[in-house]
Design brief:
The complex is a heterodimer of chains A (about 250) and B (about 280). Chain A has helices at about 45-50, 80-85, 100-110, 120-130, 135-140, 150-165, 180-195, 205-215, 230-235, 240-245, and strands at about 5-15, 20-30, 35, 60-70, 70-75, 90, 170-175, 200-205, 215-220, 225-230. Chain A is of the alpha/beta class and about 250 residues long. Chain A has a single domain, classed as P-loop containing nucleotide triphosphate hydrolases (Rossmann fold), CATH 3.40.50.300. The radius of gyration of chain A is 18 Å and the shape is globular. The two termini of chain A are about 30 Å apart. Chain B is mostly helical. Helices cover about 75% and strands about 0% of the residues of chain B. Chain B has helices spanning about 1-40, 45-50, 65-95, 100-115, 120-135, 140-165, 165-175, 180-190, 195-210, 210-215, 235-245, 250-280. Chain B is globular. The chains are: A alpha/beta (about 250), B mainly alpha (about 280). The structure holds adenosine-5'-diphosphate (ADP) and magnesium ion. Magnesium ion binds near residues 44 and 45 of chain A. The site of adenosine-5'-diphosphate has 12 residues of chain A, from β2 and α1.
């Protein structure tokens, strides 16, 4: 692949003695939607959390290998972790708004980057809420606590908040699995729009969703990468037996 | 038969529960009744607006303003001092050392031990330190002693709330590129604000009501303290001294002092609850 934005080399991860990621090698293309596919428990979430070093929060994690981002290995111990995280927004499975107002949730992302003052913040808050297709629903209630929004709205708020940090990459961990069909569709459409400016890495175990939005696919099974490549090739002409079984719905 | 046992069992636990609740309510009612019944007649405006005049302790004129102000100074000072240590410590345990379970559990264990030590031991400890450093009995010595005594209470009370901050909330804050300080002070503190208030309240109540920690450290005087190095009277000691008097009138004033103490704690508790409710709205459930 030419100039992948992220390339993962020989990544191994253990939780205590459990070998969760097994010798992972992945290349993630620029400004495309890369979908990480695989049955639940195969290590997709762990892989995403390794990308932005959220696994640091856990006890007893052992990692080896490299993750190259802009030609720098982000797994070396003394790297600027907050800087890496700012480059990657994360949308988790269950939306997790911050304990503050709708406005402040989005402004939080802006303030992290040093922006101050309501007059500067307001237009940007609006811009990112529009990017997440939430503005029209919340423009009259920006002072309400974020916890009062519906789950689908909360997820879009989290997207807006993530975009406010101005990342290059959006990591999304089954971002629609807790949402109603309409909110799911909105999120999917936003991703198709956002990939013009962002690299998107999305985890899912829903095949239909992967078919709808993936440009590139990484298929994982029990902690290993079985097959990866352009989506069309993956779906039309899978090389591995396990992939064919999976596409037929053999394990889900 | 099985069914009968089941019903009996349920009946039994219901009676047990209702019984204990009633017992507790009755106990509280009795305490308040006794304090009000014995204290209210002696509770004059003079009592809360004046310092003791000559002969106060024989039942003559004057009041307990010195002890009221002294107690408020002491408890506020101790809470402020203790808060400035316990909030960062509780945040450190739950944000900074999130991935160091063993260390954090060690700290919890030590704090629980400290919590269990009776306050008279803190009083004696404070007294020893005072003598060693050559400080006289004073408001400052009392504040330091009480703040040490309420520290484990405050830290553990905050810790219990912060422990329950969902990992997903921490993850989402960190994944935005927040530093640990930002997560601690902007997210966790806000999320736990009602719990922090409760912890402060709990510590304030323990601090203002304790006799043993101030017995050797604050001294006792009829004047309102004007500096940290002054001696000070406190309400619990005022209760203690007056209750020991053989004069019935003075004994009744002890109940009045207890009533004042109770009202102060009640007022502060209501005020802080209202304050914390304002912040509870934005907390994530
Ligand atoms: N914090 C953790 N501690 C221990 N084991 C974990 C932890 N997180 C995930 N695991 C284990 O790692 C494996 C992969 O989990 P995960 O990455 O969540 O899978 P997926 O997202 O594909 O469903 C599972 O077996 C899970 O039990
Ligand atoms: Mg998962």
């Amino acid at each position: 692949m030419e100039n992948p934005i992220i390339s993962i080399r020989n990544l191994n991860l253990y939780f205590e003695k459990q070998h969760v990621l097994k010798n992972i090698n992945i290349e993630i293309p620029h400004n495309k939607v890369t979908v990480i596919l695989g049955p639940s428990g195969c290590g997709k979430t762990t892989l995403l959390k390794t990308l932005n070093r959220l696994v640091d929060l856990h006890d007893h994690v052992k990692i080896s290998g490299k993750i190259m981002l802009d030609d720098k290995d982000i797994l070396v111990p003394n790297i600027d972790v907050t800087g890496i995280r700012k480059k990657m927004g994360l949308l988790s499975q269950k939306p997790s708004p911050l304990p503050m107002t709708i406005f402040n949730n989005v402004a939080y992302g802006l303030r992290i980057n040093g922006l101050r003052g309501k007059r500067k913040l307001m237009p940007l808050v609006e811009k990112h809420l529009r990017e997440a297709n939430l503005w029209d629903e919340v423009k009259d209630r920006l002072r309400d606590p974020a916890s009062r929004l519906s789950i689908g709205q909360q997820q879009r708020l989290c997207l807006a908040r993530g975009l406010a940090v101005n990342p290059e990459i959006i990591l999304a961990d089954e971002p629609t699995s807790a949402l109603d069909p309409i909110s799911s569709t909105v999120i999917e459409q936003q991703f198709a729009e956002l990939k013009k400016h962002y690299t998107i890495v999305m985890v899912t175990h829903v095949l239909r969703q992967a078919r709808r939005i993936a440009d590139h696919i990484v298929f994982m099974y029990l902690g290993e990468v079985i097959e990866q490549g352009p989506a069309r090739e993956f779906f039309n002409n899978p090389k591995e037996q396990k992939t064919r079984d999976y596409l037929k719905g053999a394990f889900n | 038969m099985r069914k009968l046992l089941k019903t009996l069992e349920e009946r039994f636990f219901f009676v047990l529960m209702a019984g204990s609740t009633a017992f507790l309510a009755l106990l509280l009612l009795m305490i308040i009744t006794i304090i009000v019944y014995k204290g209210l007649p002696s509770l004059t405006w003079e009592m809360v607006s004046q310092t003791p005049k000559g002969g106060y302790y024989f039942g003559r004129e004057g009041g307990l303003l010195n002890a009221i102000i002294g107690s408020l100074y002491l408890a506020s000072g101790a809470v402020a001092l203790s808060l400035s240590i316990s909030l960062p410590l509780a945040l450190a345990m739950n944000v900074y050392f999130r991935n160091r379970k063993k260390l954090v559990n060690g700290i919890r264990f030590i704090l629980d031990l400290l919590w269990g030590i009776p306050s008279i031991v803190y009083g004696a400890f404070g007294f020893t330190i005072m003598i060693y450093l050559g400080i006289r009995a004073s408001l400052l010595a009392g504040i330091i002693t009480v703040s040490i005594f309420i520290l484990p209470i405050m830290v553990r009370a905050m810790d219990e709330v912060m422990k329950n901050v969902p990992l997903s909330l921490l993850e989402s804050a960190f994944s935005l590129g927040s530093t640990r300080r930002e997560v601690a002070f902007k997210v966790v503190t806000r999320q736990c604000f009602p719990g922090i208030i409760t912890a402060v309240l709990l510590a304030f109540g323990r601090g203002i009501g304790d006799v043993a920690a101030v017995l050797f450290t604050t001294g006792y005087t009829d004047n309102i303290p004007t500096s940290l190095m002054d001696q000070t009277a406190t309400l619990p000691l005022a209760v203690f001294f007056q209750l020991g008097s053989p004069i019935p009138e003075v004994q009744n004033r002890a109940y009045a002092a207890a009533l004042i103490l109770t009202v102060i704690i009640l007022a502060i508790s209501v005020a802080t609850r209202l304050l914390s409710r304002k912040f509870h709205k934005t907390s994530i459930k």
